[in-house]
Design goal:
The chain is of the alpha/beta class. The chain has helices spanning 17-21, 35-38, 60-66, 84-93, 109-113, 122-128, 139-147, 170-181, 196-201, 212-217, 219-225, 237-265, 270-278, 285-295, 305-321, 327-341; strands at residues 3-7, 48-52, 74-78, 97-101, 117-118, 131-134, 161-164, 186-189, 192-193, 204-210, 226-231. The longest helix is centred in the last third of the chain and has 29 residues, at 237-265.
């Protein structure tokens, strides 16, 4: 399928006048078609974003989400950690009607103070909302919140949508999809590339797969939280893309850590190394962002090290499933495991450099 570039607007380019006036049941209102309705106070300027082009053929889900005149689309958000909280906050700042849930209720309080509603379980959120987003820490949590007791699936029905933005493996994403679609609801996996700061700034990259109609219907919501979005086809492709991206990122950070320590050991200023790298062909925003604090042995958490190691582990399993050797990632995974064993799990993944520091014996 060819890629095209379209500019985000308040009315989706493929929504016809008939689409906007057709009758439907009250399940989903105007998440895509009438942005001004559910985001009455837009604070974002949407720029050109790469997405795949689609035909204008209508479908039942898009028809249902377009309607319920005079109603504001209700958006659910499950999981308010380092990533989920700023993502939900950006939806609130854009004027959206948001209902939240988190295992630790106190994490909901800042969002409630901004106007969010609260439900005591994922089932309650899904039942009261039109589209529900989930940002959970790992595959186990993602399955439990979606499919477990009082999980979101119990509150879903035909005409609703569930968008899982967690980073999980392909098998987990397919499992969640099966449970969601069994309710009659539509499913989109949409793991994000980006950490705390991009989440706060609405600069995430969404790697989506699943029901294309849900992708189209929630396109503007994704634009509020991110700077670009890719539709990748069948469920599992989004999860796989995210694991490949994070596998590369983890390996890059490990190599960068080796360079910082080696430069210091041979008498060079590692701060100058960071500057040299930032001006060359191997420059990457990650190096410029993380380097200065790493030189000072400071690792403010933007992406927890335990999550980076989890993603490497999942990437290794993905590679094993297709008999693809990834020896660099395998060695990198061992380094992150050492860092975890030294109590660095909850620090930023750049703390992996500590696993390379050799303590001199006296």
């Amino acid at each position: 399928m060819a890629t095209s570039f379209v500019k985000s607007t308040s009315i989706h380019p493929h929504i016809s006048s008939a689409f906007l006036t057709s009758p439907s049941n009250y399940c989903l209102s105007k998440a895509m078609a009438l942005v001004s309705s559910f985001c009455p106070h837009p604070h974002f300027h949407f720029t050109t974003k790469p997405i795949f082009s689609f035909s204008s053929k209508q479908n039942n889900f898009s028809t249902s989400i377009a309607q319920a005149e005079g109603k504001q689309t209700k958006i659910g958000f499950l999981g308010l950690g380092i990533m989920g909280s700023p993502m939900a906050q950006n939806l609130l700042k854009a004027g959206c009607d948001v209902t939240v849930w988190n295992r630790t209720k106190s994490k909901c309080d800042p969002l409630i103070s901004l106007g969010a509603k609260y439900e005591s379980c994922p089932e309650g959120v899904a039942a009261s909302c039109d589209v529900t987003f989930a940002m959970l820490a790992d595959p186990e949590s993602a399955v439990d919140v979606a499919c477990g007791k009082n999980g979101a699936a119990s509150g879903l029905s035909q005409g609703k949508g569930y968008v899982d933005v967690s980073t999980v493996d392909v098998a987990t994403s397919k499992l969640i999809s099966e449970h969601i679609k069994a309710t009659g609801a539509e499913f989109l996996e949409a793991p994000v590339s980006g950490s705390k700061k991009p989440a706060e700034d609405g600069q995430l990259i969404f790697l989506t797969a699943g029901d294309r109609s849900l992708f189209e219907a929630t396109s503007t919501l994704l634009d509020i939280m991110g700077k670009s979005k890719f539709y990748l086809g069948d469920v599992g492709n989004g999860a796989a893309m995210k694991l490949v991206v994070n596998m590369i990122m983890g390996s890059m950070m490990a190599s960068f850590s080796e360079g910082i320590l080696l430069s210091e050991k041979v008498g060079l200023d590692p701060s100058v190394l960071v500057e040299v790298i930032s001006q060359g062909a191997i420059s990457a925003p990650m190096y410029s962002m993380k380097g200065p604090s790493m030189v000072k042995s400071s690792y403010p958490t933007a992406f927890p090290l335990k999550h980076q190691q989890k993603d490497l582990r999942l990437a290794l399993a993905l590679a094993e499933s297709v008999s693809q050797p990834i020896p660099i990632a395998a060695a990198t995974n061992e380094l992150y495991k050492i860092a975890k064993s030294r109590g660095l799990s909850d620090q930023d993944f750049s703390a992996v450099i500590e696993a390379l520091k050799v303590k001199l014996q006296h």
